[in-house]
Give the backbone structure.
Amino acid sequence: MTKILNSTGGGLIFLGSCIFAVLLLAGWYVGTAPTAPGVDDGPNRATRVAEAKLIALCDGDAELAKRLNPRLFPAIKIGEQYGLPGLQALDTFDGDAVLLFEKQPKHFADLAAVMQLDGSHLHATTGRWKPAVVQWAMAGTLGDYLKQLDRLTTQDDQVLSKVPEALPLLVSDTPVSNRVLLKFGSRAWNVLQHIDLRDHDSVERVAEAIEYYGDDMLDIHERFGPALSMLLVPHERDEQRVVPSLFLDAVNKLGAAAAGALVVTNLTDLQQLVFDEHRTLDEFRDAIAFLAGQNDPQLKDWASDSPFTLRLMLDRNQDQSLGRRVFRMCGPEAANLLYSPGGYGVTGIGADDAMRKSLKTERLAALLVLRDGGWRNLSMLREYRLDGTMRDLLRREDLVESLKDPLICRVFQKLAVSSDVEGDLRVILQKPSDQLLREEYPASNPE
C-alpha cells in the first residue's frame, strides 16, 4: 500500500514539473516570437499614411493638417485636385466646402479661388459675408463676384481696408455710400447696414443724409439707434428737408430723447402737414420753441402722448394761438379729442363746402370752450362726442363771433352745472343768440 502511495505521489510530482516546464516555454515564446499582424493594424497604417500625405498636401503646415484631420479623406481628395487653395477653402468653409465639392464640384474651383485673393479682399470675403459667398458658390455666381472684385478702384480698396463688411456696397453702384464709408468708416457702416443693401436707392438716400448731417446723424445713431437717426433721412417728397431739420431743431431745444419721442409719435400727421397742407419749417420751429419754453416739465413729457400735438400747437385763429393755450390747459388729450378720426372739426372724405365750413366752426368752438373751461369742458366734450345736438350747437357761427368773450363759452358754463345736460342742449339750440345774451349767462373767463 505504501509503495502504491509513494508511486502515485511521485507521479503527481513529475506531472506538475512537466506542466511548469510547458508554461515556461509558452511564456518565452510569447515574449520573444514576432507579433502576428492584428486586425486593426491595416486601418491604422492606412490612416498614418493618409495623415502624412495630408501634411505634404498642406505644404508641411502641420497646424492646417491638424485642423483638417477630422475630414481627412475628403481633404486628401480636395488637396489632390485643388492643391493648397482647395485645402484652405475647406479649412475656412468647413462642411459647406465638402458639400460643394461632392455635389457641385465644378463650382468648388471658385471657392478655392477665393483663398487666392489678396489682403482686404480676402478679409472681406471670408469675414461677415462668408455665408453669402457659400450661397453664391452653390448658385454658380461666385465667379461673377470675383470678377467684380477685380474692378474695384484704389479708393474702394481703401474703404475695404477700413470696413471689410462693406464689400457688397463697393461692388454696387452706390457712389455716395462709398464716399461716406471712406470718410466715416465703420460709423457710417453701422447706419447703412440697417438698410436692405439690395435696395440701392434707399441705401443712397441714407448715405446722402449721412453726408449732409455728418457727425450729428452719427452721434444720434450711436446714442439712440436707427429709430431716431433715420428721422434725418428725408421722405422722397420732403425736398426741403423740413422734417429732418425740425427734428434737429427739436433735439437742440428739447434733447434727443424728448425730440425723438415727439417726432416719431407725430410723424404721420407731421408729413401730412408738410406735404399736403404746406406748413412751413418756421411754423414748426416756433411751436418747438413754445414747447421748450414751458416751465412745467410735465408738458414736455406729455407732448409725445398724442400723434396730433404739433397740429394742436399750430392751430391759430385771427392771429391767436388757441391751440397752444388749449395745450397748456388740457395737454395732449385735447389734441386727440380734436383731431382723431371723428373728432371735433375733422373733415370726412367727400365733405362739400358747406360741411367744411360747419366743421371749421365746430373746431373753433371746441377750441374756445377748452381754452376757457379746461378739463371741465374737455370731459363734457368727450362725453357728448357722439351727440348730434352737441355738434349742432358747436356749429352755430353766431356763438363764436367774439374770440375774447364767445357766447359758446357762457353756454358751457351753464351746462357744466346743469342736472339735465341733454335737455338743456336741446333748449339752448332752439334759442337765437340775442335771446341767450338777454338771459342770465355769465361772462366767460378766458385765460
